[in-house]
Amino acid sequence: TEGMNAQDLGKILHREPTEIVKKLFMLGIMTNQNQSLEDDTIELLATDYGIEAQKVVPEDIGDLDKYFELSDNNQKDLKKRPPVVTIMGHVDHGKTTLLDRLRHTHVTEGEAGGITQHIGAYQVDIEGRLITFLDTPGHEAFTEMRARGADVTDIIILVVAADDGVMPQTIEAINHAKAANVPVIVAVNKIDKPGANPNHVMEQLSEYELIPEDWGGNTIFVNISAKTGQNIDEVLEMVNLQADILELKADPDRLAVGTVIEAKLDKGRGPVATLIVQEGTLHIGDPLVVGNTFGRVRSMTNDRGRRVKLATPSTPVEITGLNSVPDSADKFVVFEDEKTSRQVGEERAKRAELNDRQKAHRVTIDNLFDSM
Length: 372
Ligand code: GTP
Ligand code: MG
Description:
Blueprint (H helix, E strand, L loop, with lengths): L5 H8 L3 H10 L12 H10 L30 E2 L3 E6 L5 H12 L2 H5 L7 E6 L2 E6 L3 H10 L7 E7 L6 H13 L3 E6 L8 H9 L13 E4 L8 H15 L2 E2 L6 E10 L3 E10 L2 E2 L3 E4 L2 E9 L8 E2 L4 E7 L8 E4 L3 H33 L2
Parallel strand pairs: 2-4, 2-5, 5-6, 6-7
Antiparallel strand pairs: 1-8, 3-4, 9-10, 9-16, 10-15, 11-14, 12-13, 12-16, 13-15
Helix pairs in contact: 1-2, 6-7
This protein binds guanosine-5'-triphosphate (GTP) and magnesium ion.
Family: Belongs to the TRAFAC class translation factor GTPase superfamily. Classic translation factor GTPase family. IF-2 subfamily.
Subcellular location: Cytoplasm
Organism: Xylocopilactobacillus apicola
């Protein structure tokens, strides 16, 4: 009924538009034939004519969440998928060292040889079992994703330096994990150091409900040295154990949906986005909407910088072929046909632009007042 005026109503009700205007006047509403009417007015008028008006809610084609659907874990035909792991912890406690260690121990020489493209996410293969690690820069990215309902993390590895103990960002990470309901594996790091006191870390963390199994709790603790490589394989084993408990599954046979890890504008290739596929399989040529932009997957690169043709659940890939650069934590949805994808994408782009303009407008007015 949006935008309907007396003329339109006249047609529907088989009455002269002048009669409609007159009738409305009698009902206390001043209007002319061309003025669009409120829903309430139309309802009132229709009732007066003895007709029940039905509000037509325009379909919200720009609502991407409507198309973003994850499989119900009880669904059959689901297949096991690799866990997506985020490493968190206080500054300097050894997150990057651990990540490097995990990667280099388990990426074969040939693959690790060249300078691998940094795509903010990568996979390791432990005897045929893949684990995806997200290299999220700091906690903000994690918070942002969770705030926008796009949390892709299945497991958190909490790194705590044994010589330093629990620190502010350690607590922050624990709170993130709790709020997101993500299980934590504690990696007590730097046990090679003379001042290392892993027991003290256990005591401290017990106060935050992270109680080691040895003490009757259910949190996995591993004492490691990211520097020497001690017990690194045990961390990976524990990740796989935890993944088994979680029974992580997805449907690889549907249209892909997932989340943007990071995105940028590349001089030569245009907008590039690192996506993590959460459901379905992403193919070259797929029409997709990503946040407020859209396009077709023109090329896909894996975490080793190799060209790939498809990406299955929990796989990170870098894609090109989008019209503009999306934001991290944006969701993506693949559509059956390019037409729908374009419709949804254009609607979203339009809205985003309107939003930006309104924002800019507000800023201008604020500035105006500020300068007065
Ligand atoms: P931010 O990214 O700044 O938050 O730090 P981070 O947590 O990534 O720490 P990073 O891996 O950069 O390590 C900080 C310092 O600790 C570096 O000098 C590492 O060499 C050192 N380090 C990391 N792990 C170990 C370890 O197991 N033993 C010892 N002795 N030093 C370590
Ligand atoms: Mg680091």
